[in-house]
């Protein structure tokens, strides 16, 4: 309790709930979350102080930060406020030990680690790496004593803090960590609203919505200050709000009823009158210092407050005593720093000063911070509020602040670039600088996922750029690339077409650049002949130019992909593109990172799995080394596709975890692809609930795109799950709808063999064999004449499914076995094993039991080896129908008892961590999975090892003679 603070009244149930949460800390459930919600003045901060006191009494480390109303521009401000001072007090050695090997990632968020050597530039779309590092840091800081992290007034948090808090809420730190947040619900940004609601919905958080006090509680709170009718009048004016009650009681004045709005907060008029009365009772000189403090921040540094107020420090000390005695401010735990009694008080003080006075105060403080060498990001809010047009020094500070924030908090960077642009003088002298700043602003907006705002910024730039400006074509191309990420393929194509028609020389560098974008747009719109034509023109032009080797690789990759779509993949165009890519220096590759799309994805769909994975990894490495994240998601999805097809499911899981987290930050249509591939992977794993959730979200995003490739892929990803969970009618409907209502699929299309197989299975399950055969024939026609083994496997499996439905089990078995052999030879183990499962069914229908069992056991073994337990369950089901117990994968020389070698790599990792006493949540945090995914893997572990619980698992792993380590 602060000095002079009254006892807490009317919150007994809430205090009991907080005590219960603290008592549960350290249990198997790991970290927990407390949410305290309510209107301004209702007592949220007081509840947090009570929580802090109870936690300290139990021996927990308590760290607290608060967002401030006028300071939402400091990147990760609320987390820095909570953690930096404590970390700095630890000393360099302990701080390094707490960080482990993640000082670089932590330096993105916390200034306490900014001295860490930079090994690579930050990538704005991979801020989640730093967010993970913060989670691990919190878990390490908790240690055995436990950590309570308190974040107050998060409705005012800066965009970086919001992103990080959403991440922490979705992935709570492992171990003995309690995160407590307080907020005004009506002022929360939507992402934070959603994140807070989600953890409550999942029963992983305690939420308290603080209600007004009753009349009796209000009288108890006011005590002897007010009695009888006066207390009731005060209650009516205050609405039972504790802060308003105390403010009215303090002033001993009642004004007119009603309400006034201040910065979006409804404050009763009587309270406004009372605040004004209280402030007017302070001497004018003290009031000026108070206004300077409101400019400096909350909490505020006395030296900075004095500077902002324009008074000397000696005078400020005298005036501070007056403010302390009046109860308007109070001392904090840090020497020289003070806090306002309540944010509403600070807001009232700030607004009591004229706008001209505030501008001068911000200017004085900005000058002080500049002389002190404080980082540009701290100076920028004051510079923005005080600088005049044409102030070159102010522009330089804002640009420096933008550059410093661009990778770690791009939304803040966009604000500083825009502010700098507004300060530039009108006229041609500053036009080039204005263009640079507008491009930087658009880049930052794209980095924080504000793709529409980024495109609007580029649109505005294009309206001002003269037709002959040397940067115009590049801005057009870049704008089109952003529009493609938004799914606005038609608009992008129209924009680029107009620009291309204005260029006469088809081999000019600008013409080649635009031909590449035209080819890209045609690819997204499934206009493959036009894609091939534009890609060929781009390739010819790039070859003629000679100098830009990376652009040549992009065009060559587009040609190869267009040929694949056209059904002619036997030409080794992709091989030539890949060889040209291998000859590029990293610096050349860094200029065209969309090579991850045009070479990586092309190799993936052409079933050159290992080459695709390796080339994608190189693009990802260069992206991260150069701090460019715009194409990360495109490249990661290509890599994940190849990993899934190659049966490298553990690697795919890691890649897709990164991709989905990146997509939630950066947005765009390839986020839908990442979600869709996550649905595919979850289907392989047998986690149909997770697969459905990812597939549904994928389709929701896909519907925001123009008709074409991405929308069709989204439909397939969801339909693929629906057919596995017994919803054939909906699977058929979604797939046809997302692919254009049917005609798009009814013409045999390259790359659609997997979709045609889903439609075949749907029609069979709906009892329509003729319709099924229609789609099976389409699959066969779309399989490149069998040149691609995995696609041929889809087609042959579709034909085999129809044959089996018509009673021709012999033909079904032959087709499925042939497809399995080819898929296995081309390193597509999951598709090979799925073909064997179908062959086993057909053999069983023929009465060839022994052969069926052998084929099914082979399939089950292979599916278990790669971790495709969803499809393994189908093999097990067929074996049980034949009276055969499902086969287990048993390590050689390990008797008849199943050992750890029967597990996939991921399952083995989880089994070892669980056997060491880690909770599911702790395991999930340690290896970057969701808790539900860990639960699913653990269920598979128990089934495979034949154990029923954690204790038995621990004994079994101990009996494996140390091989688990």
Walk me through what this model shows.
- By secondary structure, the chain is mainly alpha-helical.
- Among the domains are: 198 residues, P-loop containing nucleotide triphosphate hydrolases (Rossmann fold, 3-Layer(aba) Sandwich); 65 residues, no CATH class; 60 residues, Arc Repressor Mutant, subunit A (Orthogonal Bundle), CATH 1.10.10.10.
- It contains 49 helices and ten strands.
- The strands form three sheets. A five-stranded parallel beta sheet has the order 2-3-4-1-5, with helices on both faces. It has a three-stranded antiparallel beta sheet with strand order 8-10-9. Strands 6-7 form a two-stranded antiparallel sheet.
- Helix 7 links the parallel strand 3 and strand 4.
- Helix 32 runs antiparallel to helix 33, helix 33 packs antiparallel against helix 34 and helix 36 runs parallel beside helix 39.
- The chain is globular and about 100 Å long.
C-alpha termini separation: 50 Å
CATH topology of the domain at 12-209: Rossmann fold
CATH 2nd-level architecture of the domain at 12-209: 3-Layer(aba) Sandwich
Q: List low-confidence stretches.
A: 253-265, 887-897, 961-965
Q: List the quaternary state of the chains.
A: single chain
**Largest beta sheet: what is the strand line-up?**
2-3-4-1-5
As a percent range, the share of helical residues equals 55-70%
């Amino acid at each position: 309790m602060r000095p002079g603070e009254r006892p807490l009244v009317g919150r007994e149930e809430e205090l009991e709930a907080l005590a219960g949460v603290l008592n549960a800390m350290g249990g198997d459930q790991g970290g927990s979350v407390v949410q305290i919600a309510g209107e301004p003045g209702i007592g949220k901060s007081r509840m947090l102080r009570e929580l802090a006191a109870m936690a300290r009494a139990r021996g927990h480390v308590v760290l607290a930060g608060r967002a401030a109303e006028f300071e939402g521009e400091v990147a990760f401000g609320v987390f820095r406020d909570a953690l930096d001072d404590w970390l700095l007090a630890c000393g360099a050695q302990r701080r390094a030990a707490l960080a482990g090997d993640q000082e670089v990632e932590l330096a993105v968020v916390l200034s306490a680690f900014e001295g860490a050597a930079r090994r690579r530039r930050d990538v704005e779309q991979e801020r989640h790496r730093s967010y993970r590092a913060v989670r691990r840091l919190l878990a390490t800081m908790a240690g055995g004593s436990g950590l309570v992290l308190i974040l107050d007034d998060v409705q005012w948090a800066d965009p970086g803090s919001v992103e990080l808090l959403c991440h922490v809420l979705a992935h709570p730190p492992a171990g003995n960590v309690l995160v407590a947040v307080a907020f005004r619900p009506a002022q929360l940004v939507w992402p934070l609203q959603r994140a807070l609601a989600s953890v409550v919905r999942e029963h992983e958080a305690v939420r308290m919505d603080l209600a007004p006090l009753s009349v009796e509680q209000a009288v108890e709170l006011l005590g002897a200050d007010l009695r009888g009718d006066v207390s009731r009048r005060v209650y009516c004016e205050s609405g039972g709000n504790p802060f308003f009650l105390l403010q009215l009681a303090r002033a001993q004045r009642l004004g007119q009823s009603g309400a006034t709005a201040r910065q979006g907060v409804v404050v009763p008029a009587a309270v406004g009158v009372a605040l004004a009365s209280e402030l007017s009772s302070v001497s004018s000189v003290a009031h000026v210092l108070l206004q300077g403090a409101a400019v400096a921040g909350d909490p505020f540094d006395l030296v900075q407050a004095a500077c902002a107020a324009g008074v000397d420090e000696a005078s400020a000390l005298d005036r501070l005593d007056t403010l302390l005695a009046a109860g308007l401010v109070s001392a904090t735990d840090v020497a020289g720093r003070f806090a306002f009694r309540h944010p509403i008080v600070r807001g009232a003080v700030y607004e009591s000063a004229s706008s001209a006075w505030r501008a001068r105060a911000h200017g004085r403080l900005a000058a002080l911070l500049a002389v002190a060498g404080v980082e540009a990001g701290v100076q920028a809010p004051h510079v923005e509020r005080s600088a005049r047009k044409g102030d070159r020094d102010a522009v330089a500070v804002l640009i420096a602040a933008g550059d410093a924030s661009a990778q770690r908090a791009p939304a803040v960077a966009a604000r500083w670039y825009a502010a700098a642009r507004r300060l530039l003088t009108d006229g041609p002298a500053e036009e080039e600088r204005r263009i640079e700043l507008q491009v930087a602003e658009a880049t930052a907006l794209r980095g924080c996922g504000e793709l529409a705002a980024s495109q609007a910024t580029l649109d505005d730039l294009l309206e001002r750029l003269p037709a002959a400006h040397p940067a115009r074509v590049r801005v057009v191309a870049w704008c089109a690339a952003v529009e493609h990420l938004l799914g606005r393929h038609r608009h992008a194509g129209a924009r680029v077409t107009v620009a291309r028609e204005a260029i006469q020389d088809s081999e000019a560098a600008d013409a080649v650049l635009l031909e590449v974008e035209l080819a890209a747009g045609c690819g997204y719109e499934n206009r493959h002949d036009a894609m091939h034509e534009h890609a060929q023109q781009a390739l010819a032009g790039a070859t003629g130019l000679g100098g830009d080797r990376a652009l040549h690789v992009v065009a060559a990759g587009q040609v190869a992909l267009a040929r694949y779509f056209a059904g002619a993949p036997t030409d080794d165009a992709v091989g030539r593109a890949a060889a040209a890519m291998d000859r590029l220096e990293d610096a050349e590759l860094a200029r065209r990172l969309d090579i991850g799309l045009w070479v990586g994805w092309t190799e993936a769909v052409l079933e050159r799995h290992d080459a695709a994975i390796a080339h994608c990894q190189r693009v990802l490495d260069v992206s991260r080394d150069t701090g460019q994240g715009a194409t990360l998601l495109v490249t990661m999805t290509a890599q994940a596709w190849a990993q899934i097809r190659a049966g490298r499911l553990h690697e795919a899981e890691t890649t897709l975890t990164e991709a989905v987290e990146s997509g939630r930050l950066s947005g765009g249509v390839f986020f839908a692809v990442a979600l869709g591939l996550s649905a595919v992977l979850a289907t392989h794993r047998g986690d149909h609930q997770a697969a459905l959730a990812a597939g549904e979200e994928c389709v929701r995003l896909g519907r925001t795109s123009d008709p074409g490739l991405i929308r069709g892929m989204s439909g397939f990803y969801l339909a693929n799950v629906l057919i596995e969970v017994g919803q054939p009618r909906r699977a058929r409907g979604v797939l046809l709808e997302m692919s254009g209502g049917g005609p798009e699929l009814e013409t045999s299309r390259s790359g659609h063999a997997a979709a045609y197989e889903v439609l075949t299975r749907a029609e069979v399950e709906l009892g329509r064999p003729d319709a099924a055969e229609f789609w099976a024939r389409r699959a066969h026609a779309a399989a490149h004449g069998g040149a691609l083994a995995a696609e041929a496997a889809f087609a042959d499996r579709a034909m085999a499914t129809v044959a089996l439905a018509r009673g021709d089990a012999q033909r079904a078995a032959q087709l499925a076995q042939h497809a399995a052999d080819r898929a296995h030879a081309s390193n597509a183990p999951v598709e090979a094993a799925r073909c064997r499962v179908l062959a086993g069914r057909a053999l069983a229908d023929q009465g060839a039991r022994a052969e069926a069992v052998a084929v099914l056991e082979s399939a089950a073994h292979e599916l278990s080896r790669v971790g495709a337990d969803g499809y393994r369950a189908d093999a097990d089901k067929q074996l049980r129908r034949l009276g055969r117990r499902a086969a287990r994968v048993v390590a050689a020389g390990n008797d008849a008892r199943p050992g750890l070698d029967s597990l996939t790599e991921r399952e083995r990792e989880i089994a070892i961590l669980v056997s060491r006493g880690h909770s599911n949540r702790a395991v999930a945090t340690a290896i970057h999975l969701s808790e539900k995914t860990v639960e699913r893997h653990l269920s598979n572990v128990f089934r495979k090892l034949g154990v029923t619980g954690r204790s038995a698992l621990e004994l079994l792993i101990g009996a494996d003679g140390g091989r688990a380590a």
